[in-house]
């Protein structure tokens, strides 16, 4: 006798992906460097603050730019957002951002510190340095340099104790630190997931929902999850990608989304370490192209080396919406890739998505549920 659950699962898999959202391009933010195609302003990371009122960007240009979200949303004279039939608003970075701060090195990661509104922003750079910036004072207030000068790819903060941070680096380690401990953020714990040889740690993510769990994605193709209270051996290992794991995101307390340069995303059940679904369609074989999960709507977004933005619904392995490259005539060249994406975590029936590319162009998309 055939198991009923297996039949239901098969029916789910056979159901075709459908888009229940209307997305449109609202705003394009660029600069003279963007138009020249020089690639010197690649946007490597985008982060909305916890309240969704500000957006921070960083990358090759050695600048942290802070944008008020209202300035990025296309509005008419009466303050009402234009319809999807209106032409996109075109802005320059210099006019669109509220302010910027110069950084000592190229940035690999940005993360807003929880519990402090929109005041403190952490960064990890290509020189192996972690810094925190007070945005009211517009100056750095904390610095640690414990990764031996090796590039920091990712930082994150613990939601239950926002002072506790973690950073993952090319030196093969994930380090946890706390500025309150002195000694330039004393290392409270350190793990080297691949103990036999030093494999870069590409991403770090605390579970924001429940429990003292921190997950680490490595160039050895695996995701390692640790209990912060006893970080000797991993609680579990997710093994299924064919190449380096570049991003990790928790979609809920027991479900993890991972991205890899094997060209796919995977959704995992953290309790039994099984793959629930694999998402394919985007092109990713070499670079970091971004990953963001919009939790209220169950949507996943990533960039692509085809210079496109891909949106997946967590229910289906095929993309539900793809935004293609601009016509060659607008940019004057035919290359580049989408290097970062970020959802604003707000309303369940409408959403805002921002994508940055290798030419330093930001695109803001608005979406409404049909």
Automatic annotation (TrEMBL):
WD repeats lie at residues 238-278. The keyword Nucleus applies. The keyword Transferase does not apply. It comes from the Eukaryota. It is found in: Cytoplasm, Cytosol; Nucleus. GO terms for biological process: flower development; regulation of protein-containing complex assembly; response to UV-B. SMART domains: WD40. Keywords: Cytoplasm, Flowering, Nucleus, Repeat, WD repeat. PROSITE patterns: WD_REPEATS_2 (PS50082), WD_REPEATS_REGION (PS50294). Pfam families: WD40 (PF00400). This is Uncharacterized protein. One of its GO terms (cellular component) is nucleus. Its main location: cytoplasm.
